[in-house]
Amino acid sequence: MKKIIALLAVVALFSACKDSKKDQVILTTSSGRLNHLSVILDNDLWQGEIGEELREKLAAPVEGLPQQEPLFTISHIPTSAFDGFVRNNRTFLKVQKRQEPSFKIVRDSFARPQTGIFISGPSTESIINIIEEKKPKIINALKNTELREQQRRISKSLKNDKFLEEKMGVSLKFPTAYRYAKKDDDFFWIRKDIPNGSMEILVYEVPFSMIESDTNTIGNIIKMRDSIGKARVPGPTEGTYLRTEEAYAPYLFESKIDGKFAYETKGTWEVKDAFMAGPFINYAVKDEKNNRYVVLEGFVFKPSATKRDHMFELESILKSAKIN
To answer: Which Pfam families does UniProt cross-reference here (predicted)?
Structure first.
């Protein structure tokens, strides 16, 4: 009797394995340029109010850049053409008119990794209402997908950050294309040369009092940046140095780095008494264990050129930080 039960168990297990193999779908690797989004909907919807709403929300200007660049570069694909290799795009948003309103974020439907967003509703008004209501979730889902992809690409060839970790207790994942411009016990300047410009990363620490001295947080962060710029980041000639551009107030947000609270600041930098400027992103990460703010900053110099994707690379690097 025991032998019969054991045999039946083996047969059942074998059958289950066969069934699970049948159910498995081998997904191809997703493709697509970073921050490019495929929007799938019929031509009449794309040319009407729904298309306008999507362009307004998802191709809105990126905050903190000196010139207007879209949050996502959108490619319209008619519903009938959403087939074959087109379905391999890493991110897509599909809109359809259907009786029941619906909003879904799905992962790895046709390729891996992939984030797809499905929106449907019985009328133009109902679909626009869903887009309005779900805008933060849509943008977060798409941006997080692109951040993970950027970090995956960066991780293929990483620069050694051992000295940074030893001196400041900060590990950072950045490519070998970057080099150390300055390495001190409490200040690191890392840079990458690009055509007609450069990409820069600063890592340093300040006491709590420098940011928390009063309720004017953004003013304190500007003072902090400018004092560090004057002391540590000289310009091309004597007496010039990095500072926050006075004509434009930076944007201030609350964020998290390595699970720790951080002030996120986006704005424009300039070099005092020199014709040099560009965008920056700054994270002041509250490290309560060590009674300090760890400051992670990235900025780009590339005159008369788009900078969105360069800033996105820097953001991806800074968000990889681990504070030990």
So the answer is: DUF4837 (PF16125)
Task: List the CATH code of the domain at 28-154.
Answer: 3.30.379
- Reference 105, options 218, 127, 114, 96; nearest CA is 114
C-alpha dihedral sign at 175, 179, 184, 189: negative
CA–CA gap between residue 182 and residue 187 (Å, rounded): 7
Distance CA 143, CA 187 (A): 30
Q: In the CATH hierarchy, which fold is given to the domain comprising 162-323?
A: Protein Transport Mog1p; Chain A (3.40.1000)
Q: What are phi and psi of 254, to 5 degrees?
A: -105, 135
Query: What letter represents residue 186's amino acid?
Result: D
**For 218, phi and psi rounded to 5 degrees?**
-65, -40
Reported as a single tens digit per residue, the pLDDT across 93-123 is 999 999 999 999 999 999 999 999 999 999 9
CA 316 to chain centre: 5
Rounded to the nearest 5 percent, the helix, strand and coil shares of the chain are: 35, 35, 30
Q: pLDDT tens digits for 217-230?
A: 999 999 999 999 99
Model pLDDT for residues 167-203, shown as the tens digit of each residue: 999 999 999 999 999 999 999 999 999 999 999 999 9
Domains in the chain: boundaries: 28-154, 162-323
pLDDT band for position 4 (50/70/90)? low
Distance CA(300)–CA(195), nearest Å, equals 12
Q: What is the value of pTM for the model shown?
A: 0.89
Backbone angles phi, psi at 152, to 5 degrees: -65, -45
In order of 45, 74, 288, the CA distances from 125 in angstroms are 12, 22, 48
Report in angstroms the alpha-carbon separations of 136 from 34, 37, 56.
19, 16, 14
A 10 A CB-CB count for 180 gives 15
Look up residue 196 and give its two tokens.
Answer: 């007609």
Tell the residue number behind the tokens 């620069």, with chain if given: 159
Average pLDDT, the chain: 92
Do residues 77 and 90 make contact, with C-beta atoms less than 8 angstroms apart? no
